[in-house]
Amino acid sequence: MVQGKETSRDLFPGALEMMILESLRRQPAHGYALVQHIQQRSNNLLQVEEGSLYPALQRLLKDKLVKAEWAISSTNRRIRMYTITAAGVRRLEREKLSFERMFEGIALVLGPARQQS
């Protein structure tokens, strides 16, 4: 689940996956780094919990939108590093366009009423 400072609210379907893909497009990362990146980029408005992150990563792996390899962290721990695939980049671009259109429509509905001619 993703939480804001004042309320707990679920994102629309696919939002977490889209944020994960965008984060991985910037650079490969392990799970904790993804959580930190999303939190920092959202100015701490979004906090991704492990119970939401890892199922989303498993869906992305299953759909071959990301790939994972085991690595060793700087603290000598085994970590699973995730990388976006070419299919993941294509899906991300489609999802971003769809989101932008949806956001534009919502903004029009919530915005000031227009004069009808």
Short description:
With 117 residues, this protein is of the alpha+beta class. The protein has one domain (2-110): Orthogonal Bundle (Arc Repressor Mutant, subunit A).
Describe the overall structure.
This is Transcriptional regulator. InterPro entries: Metal_resp_DNA-bind_regulator (IPR052509), Tscrpt_reg_PadR_acidobac-type (IPR017799), Tscrpt_reg_PadR_N (IPR005149), WH-like_DNA-bd_sf (IPR036388), WH_DNA-bd_sf (IPR036390). Residues 20-93 form the Transcription regulator PadR N-terminal domain. It holds the Pfam family PadR. The protein starts with a strand and ends in a 7-residue tail after the last helix. A hairpin with a 5-residue loop joins strand 4 and strand 5. It contains four helices and five strands. It has a single domain (2-110), classed as Orthogonal Bundle (Arc Repressor Mutant, subunit A), CATH 1.10.10.10. It is of the alpha+beta class. Residues 1-8 have low confidence and may be disordered. It is elongated and about 65 Å long. A three-stranded antiparallel beta sheet has the order 2-5-4. Helix 1 (15-26) crosses helix 4. It has helices spanning 15-26, 31-41, 50-62, 86-110, and strands at residues 2-3, 29-30, 47-48, 66-72, 78-84.
